[in-house]
Recover the amino acids of this structure.
């Protein structure tokens, strides 16, 4: 497999890359973008002195996939190829790996960390790379890690620093960036081009060949009418109204309709408002209302028993301890209604009609006797588990021979998969041990999944990029793409809108491609200058925000019980990733839970036990053992409120904290905590 040829449409899209131009290859899912990139890499290695090819991906599992399926089979005979991700020990001396390799396949975060790290063993310069391949390059925007890397590139370009790597981007769709008009869509495509310093190319002469190689599935809308009666949902809404009465909504605040995304936005705002005002009644009631609203949303998409189960998981056993009358009221409200809710949830005459339509859709394909493979795309990790449970317990689906399993993103938590589990699931699907994947958006792009006869979009509201990529999974002959949705619902409207946006994307790309070379280059330079200026302004604003308060002037409060538990000056930053509390007195405020496990290894630390607020049992984070000696709590800032001189606030990520967190100094920590040992 050392040598290979491309289809003629692939040969067309790589022509400019072979002339060392920066380009973005735009081909649909299944069109062979990665194979085209391997071809470019091979020619680049053959013709470039001291060539160094870097392949960037945005998900950990794609490192192995690109290595095993594409680059290693075609290049390993003549070149040294290495793969590095967060689960690799080699990330800790990435600079040395790059020096000793011809081709490196890695996650974008690994390269970005190396570009800003000054330690020799870890550091990499852009000038070390001669060809930079960026997979799924439509993610090169805003504060994404791809764009952080390319900003460093653009800064060097505008300062006329040489040498810089050749750029090769790969995408099935750059999208419209939310634009609804051609002019705005063209602006978005040009901005992606500017971010990647590349022109965008697609096949012109050989479009019929591409269409034959990557046929589009037949699209079918499976529309159901709203169920005439919903006593389970009505009962939930009655309980929510009881909470509304108890919490005494602020007179200037009006909630949207229960069971909608708009209502969820409202109660999230109420949680934040309650925390900022020190109004625990408001904050706690709003937190519980979000759980009820989630149950209503589940009831609208899945089985009633799934909606009931989401509430049961929240309340039994109680996640947080009751510390005042509000907690007691909320727990008692659920306990008083629990039996009736469960009885209503198990009454088949009021079941969600979408489930029956989904069953019919699956039986039409899998009950036909024709060997089939399919994917159901669903919104959340939790919904994939619910749908799998339904499939396994459904007699007709089992008799039709459906063998289903879930496919979700890699992470840490009960509803996540490990990288090995994900790889095993895909392998089982490929060899036929499974014939139906129930997946989140993780299967839309990148993953090497066999051609499917059926793709079902179920309960989803996504953009045109996700829709195009999901469509691309149905590539088998006579395949179908089905949308199961309620008549007049938002899913149908969004699906139709995405069809228009897909067409608009094509028109926008065509407009960009017809620009003269001079006009294109001028526009790209203008956009790059503007983007860098805006980025610097934003960095300055963030720095000013962090310098507004000293760390000592900020107090951390448990987000649930609002107890003051730490000072901002207690928080230190380890290796640009771990925010730990170094104050030994902090242990008096928490108790440890279960041992935390991670699907990766780190050079200097390992996870310890989860930690929870001693007063209310709110989860705060987990302990880490640093250099096999120092045991410190690693905190998630989203689980705390911040008391600042300007008032109380909340943030989701540490980078948005209104004070500067100093780097952790291991020697100082040891001197303070282990003075006798050091002597």
């Amino acid at each position: 497999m050392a040598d290979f040829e491309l289809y003629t449409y692939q040969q067309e899209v790589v022509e400019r890359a072979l002339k060392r131009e920066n380009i973005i290859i735009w081909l649909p899912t299944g069109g062979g973008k990665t194979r085209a990139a391997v071809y470019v890499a091979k020619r680049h290695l053959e013709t470039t002195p001291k060539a160094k090819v870097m392949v960037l991906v945005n998900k950990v599992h794609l490192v192995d996939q690109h290595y095993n399926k594409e680059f290693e089979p075609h290049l390993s005979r003549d070149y040294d190829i290495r793969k590095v991700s967060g689960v690799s020990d080699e990330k800790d001396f990435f600079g040395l790996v790059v020096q000793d390799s011809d081709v490196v396949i890695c996650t974008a975060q690994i390269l970005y960390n190396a570009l800003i790290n000054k330690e020799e063993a870890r550091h990499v310069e852009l000038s070390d790379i001669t060809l930079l391949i960026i997979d799924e390059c439509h993610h090169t925007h805003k504060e994404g890690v791809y764009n952080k890397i390319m900003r460093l590139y653009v800064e060097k370009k505008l300062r006329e620093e040489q040498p810089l790597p050749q750029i090769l981007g790969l995408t099935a769709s750059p999208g419209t960036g939310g634009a609804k008009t051609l002019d705005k869509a063209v602006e978005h495509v040009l901005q992606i081009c500017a971010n990647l310093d590349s022109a965008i190319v697609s096949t012109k002469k050989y479009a019929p060949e591409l269409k034959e190689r990557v046929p589009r599935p037949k699209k079918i809308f499976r529309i159901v009418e709203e169920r005439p009666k919903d006593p389970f949902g009505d009962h939930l809404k009655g309980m929510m109204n009881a909470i509304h009465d108890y919490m005494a909504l602020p007179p200037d605040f009006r909630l949207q309709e229960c069971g909608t995304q708009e209502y969820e936005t409202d109660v999230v705002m109420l949680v934040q408002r309650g925390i900022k005002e020190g109004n625990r009644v408001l904050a706690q009631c709003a937190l519980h209302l979000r759980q009820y609203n989630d149950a209503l949303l589940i009831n609208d998409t899945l089985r009633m028993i799934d909606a009931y189960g989401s509430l049961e998981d929240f309340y039994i056993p109680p996640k947080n301890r009751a510390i005042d009358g509000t907690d007691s009221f909320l727990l008692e409200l659920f306990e008083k209604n629990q039996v009736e809710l469960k009885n209503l949830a198990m009454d088949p005459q009021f079941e969600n009609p979408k489930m029956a339509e989904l069953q019919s859709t699956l039986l039409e394909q899998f009950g036909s006797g024709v060997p089939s493979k399919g994917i159901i795309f669903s919104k959340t990790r939790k919904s994939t588990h619910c749908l799998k449970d339904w499939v396994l317990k459904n007699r007709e689906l089992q008799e039709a021979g459906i063998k289903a399993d879930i496919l979700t993103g890699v992470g840490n938590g009960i509803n996540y998969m490990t990288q090995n589990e994900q790889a095993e699931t895909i392998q089982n699907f490929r060899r036929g041990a499974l014939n139906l994947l129930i997946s989140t958006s993780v299967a839309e792009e990148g993953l090497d999944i066999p051609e499917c006869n059926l793709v079902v979009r179920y309960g989803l509201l996504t953009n045109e990029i996700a829709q195009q990529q999901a469509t691309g999974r149905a590539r088998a002959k006579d395949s179908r793409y089905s949308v199961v949705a309620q008549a007049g619902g938002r899913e149908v409207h969004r699906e139709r809108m995405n069809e228009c946006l897909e067409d608009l994307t094509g028109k926008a790309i065509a407009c960009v491609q017809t620009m003269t070379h001079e006009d294109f280059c001028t526009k790209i330079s203008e956009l790059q200058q503007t983007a860098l200026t805006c980025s610097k302004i934003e960095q300055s604003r963030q720095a000013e925000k962090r310098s507004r308060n000293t760390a000592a002037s900020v107090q951390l409060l448990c987000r649930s019980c609002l107890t003051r538990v730490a000072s901002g000056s207690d928080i230190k930053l380890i290796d640009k990733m771990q925010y730990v509390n170094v104050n030994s007195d902090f242990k008096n405020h928490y108790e440890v839970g279960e041992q935390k496990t991670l699907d990766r290894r780190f050079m200097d630390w390992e996870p310890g036990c989860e930690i929870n607020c001693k007063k209310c049992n709110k989860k705060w984070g987990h302990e880490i053992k640093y250099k096999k000696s120092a045991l410190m709590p690693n905190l998630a800032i989203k689980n705390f409120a911040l008391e600042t001189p300007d008032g109380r606030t909340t943030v989701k990520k540490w980078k948005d904290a209104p004070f500067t967190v100093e780097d952790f100094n291991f020697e100082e920590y040891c001197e303070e905590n282990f003075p006798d040992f050091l002597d």
The domain at 551-678 is CATH 2.170.150.30 (Metal Binding Protein, Guanine Nucleotide Exchange Factor; Chain A). The radius of gyration is 27 Å. The chain has a mean pLDDT of 92.
